[in-house]
């Protein structure tokens, strides 16, 4: 049954995505067609809930600042969070790898909706450009910046080491940090086809004000994310025993 539901989801998700990208092509003439990520990810959430049987349970929604100028720092386990965070937060900006911008049509939408990319082959020069983009999104557009400091997707019970980019971004922007933790990898494993039914647990910590120095953040933030990630992973795994 999991195979059938996963198969139907992927067929509908990718075919529907292609149709939307084609149908909405004229919207690329708009400066910031921010309704497109909402439409795209809302469609994915609908399919996950009604085809796969995967929903979400969120704790701490009231901790999201009213002012959207903050950094979302989250663990990275699955495709799920790269989609569903658009349904939880208001117009987030994802920091992604530059290669995604080269995908025909899809990459154009990423650029037009203000997503930011980093070139890992030219990290130093690319990072300076990234910081300028972050400033513009935070200050001028009032949009939160979503960062996955582990870099690549990790297994639910094996959180990864934080890369230094998050601390450099915080030092540059002086923006508050909102730590967000989930167990999506229990249901949709990294680089896997099968998606299990259930409820992804998402936990949103109270926001950390921009008064912490970098050394303190290097201790606090990974500790908060990793501790909660392991706890939520156990909760998710216990549901499937």
Reading the helices and strands in chain order gives HHEEHEHEHEHEHEH
Model regions low in confidence, pLDDT < 50 over at least 5 residues: none
Using only C-alpha atoms, the radius of gyration works out to 18 Å
**What is the annotated CATH architecture?**
3-Layer(aba) Sandwich
The helix content, as a percent range, equals 40-55%
Q: Please give the largest β-sheet.
A: 7 strands, mixed
- CATH topology-level fold name: Glycerol-3-phosphate (1)-acyltransferase
Number of domains: 1
**CATH class term:** Alpha Beta
Distance between the termini: 17 Å
Given helix and strand content, the structural type is alpha/beta
Q: Report strand %.
A: 5-15%
Strand line-up of the largest beta sheet: 1-7-6-2-5-3-4
| Overall mean pLDDT | 92
InterPro entries: Plipid/glycerol_acylTrfase
Keywords: Acyltransferase, Membrane, Transferase, Transmembrane, Transmembrane helix
Pathway: Lipid metabolism
Organism: Candidatus Bodocaedibacter vickermanii
Explained architecture:
By secondary structure, the chain is of the alpha/beta class. The chain has one domain (2-239): Glycerol-3-phosphate (1)-acyltransferase. It has helices at 2-23, 35-52, 80-88, 106-112, 123-140, 165-173, 184-187, 214-239, and strands spanning 54-59, 71-74, 93-97, 116-118, 145-147, 177-182, 198-204. Strands 1-7-6-2-5-3-4 form a 7-stranded mixed β-sheet. β3, α4 and β4 (116-118) form a beta-alpha-beta unit. α1 packs antiparallel against α2 and α2 (35-52) packs across α3 (80-88). This is 1-acyl-sn-glycerol-3-phosphate acyltransferase.
């Amino acid at each position: 049954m999991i195979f059938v539901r996963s198969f139907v989801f992927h067929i509908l998700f990718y075919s529907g995505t292609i149709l939307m990208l084609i149908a909405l092509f004229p919207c690329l003439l708009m400066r910031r067609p921010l309704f497109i990520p909402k439409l795209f990810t809302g469609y994915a959430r609908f399919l996950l809930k009604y085809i796969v049987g995967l929903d979400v349970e969120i704790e701490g929604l009231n901790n999201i600042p009213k002012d959207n100028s903050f950094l979302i720092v989250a663990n990275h386990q699955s495709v799920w969070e790269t989609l569903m965070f658009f349904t939880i937060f208001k117009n987030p900006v994802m920091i992604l790898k530059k290669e995604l911008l080269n995908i025909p049509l899809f990459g154009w939408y990423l650029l037009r909706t203000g997503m930011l990319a980093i070139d890992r082959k030219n990290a130093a020069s690319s990072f300076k450009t990234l910081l300028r983009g972050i400033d513009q999104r935070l200050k001028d557009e009032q949009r939160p910046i979503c960062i996955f400091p582990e870099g690549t997707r990790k297994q639910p019970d094996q959180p990864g080491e934080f890369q230094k980019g998050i601390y450099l971004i915080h030092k540059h922007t002086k923006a508050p940090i909102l730590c967000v933790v989930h167990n999506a990898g229990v249901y949709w494993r990294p680089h896997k086809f099968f998606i299990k039914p259930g409820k992804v647990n998402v936990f949103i910590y109270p926001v950390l004000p921009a008064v912490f120095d970098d050394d303190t953040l290097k201790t606090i933030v990974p500790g908060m994310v990793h501790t909660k990630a392991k706890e939520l992973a156990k909760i998710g795994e216990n549901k499937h025993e």
